Amino acid sequence: MHFVYGLALLAAVLVAAPYFAHRLRRRRGEERVFAAARLVPPAPPRARRRSKLEDRALFGTRALAVVGLAVLGASPLVRCSRLALQRPGGASVAIALVVDDSMSMRALSSGTTRFDRAKEGARQLLASTREGDAVAIVLAGAPARVALAATTDLGAARAAVDALVQSDRGTDLDGAIGMSHALIAQLPQVDRRVVVLSDLADGHPDGPPIGEGTEIPTWVALPELREPAADCGILGADRLGPRVRVRIACSHDATALGREVTLLDGDRVVARAAAPSGESGETTLMLAEPADGGPPAAQADSLQAHLTGTDAIAADDTAPVVIEAGPGSIAVVADSVDELAVTGGAPVVEQALAALELDVAVRPIPALPDRSEDLAPFAGAILDDPPGFTPEERRALGSFLEGGGVVLLALGPRAAAAPLGASLDPIVPHAVVWGPTPVPGVDPATSAGVLAESATSLQDVAAKSRVTLAPEDVGNFEPLLKWKDGPLFVAKRSVGRGEAWIVTLPFAIDASDLPLRPAFLALLDAWAAEARARAAPRRTDVGVPVVYDGPVARVVPPLLGTYTVSVDSKRELRVASLVARELDLRPRGAAPAAGGAGLGDSHAAIDISSSIALLLLGLTVVEMTLRLRARTRAVAET
């Protein structure tokens, strides 16, 4: 408490005055003559005890009045830790509140989360606004979003603040501040300012100071949000068979030493291991193999990895276990036996994919799987001149394409000679024809999109024979490149949420020199890029949109955990994982001008004089009533 405020409250000691006045106050007793008293000799005077307080109610009222006067005198000096706007010119202001709702704001600060403190600070600032002020609200969780466009409706602003909820997103302070400037830059209020309510822990502690070089003044309020804190979290847990790999990271200069990683199946611990001792690392746990014929040791979709112990943020200490998480892989179905004699090694398409050094694994498989579950781990599949598809393979391939998979189908003599009961549906519904090439080479002028630059290398491609599609199927495809006489050479079509590409030549070297042309690598690279783009990984960072084709354009998970997405009646499990940089709780610096001088105050004065004056007025009325009652009672006794 401030010294001057304490000195002002010393006036409250005057409450002793009514006490002593009541103790000394005695009414003189009524004298009555008693004749026998004359026969008793007078006694010398002795000290007598003071009488007890008379009229306690009146005394209490007067004591309260004295205390109220002391508080009234000290009330102009009362100040508390409360945010408020300053108005040097007294005019209306336009204010943009940047409220950080990122994961790091879950850390505790003075017994409450940083986000709750920031939200309360926003309420306090709104309490100091007045009619004519404009308010905008921007959330700093990545990506930055507008929670409330600039408005003079202060009631709507208060409702918007009350509706704010915590998320587990990353932090985008620069984007949020830039968005705030855009919201209020054109408002009519001359006094414009941005208030940042954040811990400034955006993973870039060495970044430019907040508020430096900005045209609109910026106030970084609530310095208590930037107190040091330590946190560790689980970045991901991947399961491959009985092996579960858990990746852990910690904030700067913090470790998980002495803590454990456990695997939970519901409430049951199925495995445990020591956490890595460094700032980051991984731990591998082994699940017990089920006995023959016995139930599985743990359900795949129910496993949770948990980091024991406590730290600044508890929400990032648990993560779901994901099966075969990663960027996906590409399946290659080719006749390796025939090509072994020609190339002396793997099929030419596998060698070409290896030469591209893609960031996805290439997995050769002997035949197209006949179960959709076996195709699910792949982002794309390359089918080199398959002898048609069986009904089971067609169903699996159809589910793969409908779910967003990408297929590259090379058509050749075996595809044209599919046995009875086999077909190329759902990519090419009708039968294809393998026959002589009347005019060799392609027309580069017909190239489109990804093949535009490399098409010239195919204008004299040597191919004695080629595949021709049925006229009913040609209209289903978008041409990417055509033969010189007009038929399709490379084309694609959408199938559900996926895409199918076709080439009317097989990839075998003895069929054409297509695999030896630069355009072949360009074709594989473009197709692989499409496969990676369309494959929604099972795990994505929280707050990062997962893009789909179809009715659901994009899904943005705001919290850590598992999500079930239903697209075209198909349910898909997705996992939103922790953004690694949110574990770095070191704040960015704030420019000296962002301290709030002239913009706001974190120790606002509170004017309670009017309330105390009303209380004193009421006490005066009570005292007059008590005195009148006492006088009336005294008259009645006489």
Rg, Cα atoms, Å: 40 Å
Question: Approximately how much beta-strand content do the residues carry?
Answer: 25-35%
Structural class, by secondary structure, is: alpha/beta
Sheet with the most strands, sense and barrel status: 8 strands, mixed
Helix percent reads 10-25%
Number of helices: 14
Number of domains: 5
CATH class (first level) name of the largest domain: Alpha Beta
The CATH homologous superfamily of the largest domain is called Class I glutamine amidotransferase (GATase) domain
CATH architecture of the largest domain: 3-Layer(aba) Sandwich
Query: What is the mean predicted local confidence, pLDDT?
Result: 83
- In the sheet with the most strands, the strands line up as 17-16-18-19-25-24-23-21
CATH topology title of the largest domain: Rossmann fold
3D shape: elongated
